[in-house]
Amino acid sequence: ADREDIIGLFNERFKTVYKEQYEQTKQHFSSPDEMREFYDDGINILEWFKKHRSQFFTTRNVVLLGIEMPLYIQATDKNPKVIMNGFIDIVIRDTKNDRIMIIDIKTSTRGWNEAAKKDKIKASQLVLYKSYFAKQYGYDEEKIDIKYFIVKRKLIDGFMYPQKRIQEFVPASGKP
Fold first, then answer.
1. Which among 44, 47, 9, 15 is positioned nearest to 30, based on CA atoms?
2. What is the pLDDT of residues 6-61, one digit of tens each?
3. Other CB atoms within 10 A of residue 148 CB
4. Which helix (H) or strand (E) holds 129?
5. In this structure, are strands 144-152 and 83-94 parallel, antiparallel, or unpaired?
6. Contact 84, 132 (CB under 8 A)
7. E strand or H helix at 71, and its extent?
8. 148 vs 28, 39, 61, 98, CA distance in Å?
9. φ, ψ for residue 155 (rounded to 5)?
10. 23 sits in which H/E element
11. Among the four 19, 121, 134, 165, which has the fewest Cβ within 10 Å?
């Protein structure tokens, strides 16, 4: 990770995606000021994360199974035409404890408050991913953990305590 120029990669991808969208629609979907704000937010997030990534990830006893790992599986036995089709942001296997961690990355202006954390629809996404991942890839659902990384675009100005750009949220996902 230290050898990657993540700022350069972000800069290139930021320009490419905007250009692709413009070529498809022939319309600018954002103002230059708004684009500058989002760009600066992205740079601030990447710089913060690069300095603090060891708080979130380790290289000991873990294997990266996938980034944007595909889910494509029959959603229900009742109707074989209904398919679960999606992508899991990050999947890591803990080789020491024989567990899987599924991580979904969300962006938010300033993080999730209590109401957002209690939103059943938001929490259910990873619970579904866990279930379908277990079926598709043959893992024991009991050995799969889930976690949201909520990436904050903005920090609170003048806040008296140090702030993190990433808020972790682990929804309930065990058997009721």
1. 15
2. 999 999 999 999 999 999 999 998 999 999 999 999 999 999 999 999 999 998 99
3. 25
4. helix 120-137
5. unpaired
6. yes
7. strand 62-74
8. 31, 23, 21, 20
9. -110, 155
10. helix 6-25
11. 121
Distances, alpha carbon 102 to alpha carbons 29, 45, 70, 149, 169, in Å: 32, 21, 12, 10, 12
What is the layout of strands, in order, in the sheet containing 83-94? Answer: 62-74, 83-94, 99-108, 144-152, 166-169
Q: Which residue has the tokens 């990669």?
A: 9
Contact 44, 164 (CB under 8 A): no
Any idea how long the chain is? 176
Q: Which single residue is written with the structure tokens 């692709």?
A: 20
Amino acid at 123: A
Are 107 and 153 spatial neighbours (Cβ–Cβ below 8 Å)? yes
Query: How would you class 44 by CB atoms within 10 Å of its CB: exposed for 0-12, middle for 13-18, buried for 19 or more?
Result: middle
Question: Do 166 and 152 form a contact (C-beta atoms < 8 A)?
Answer: yes
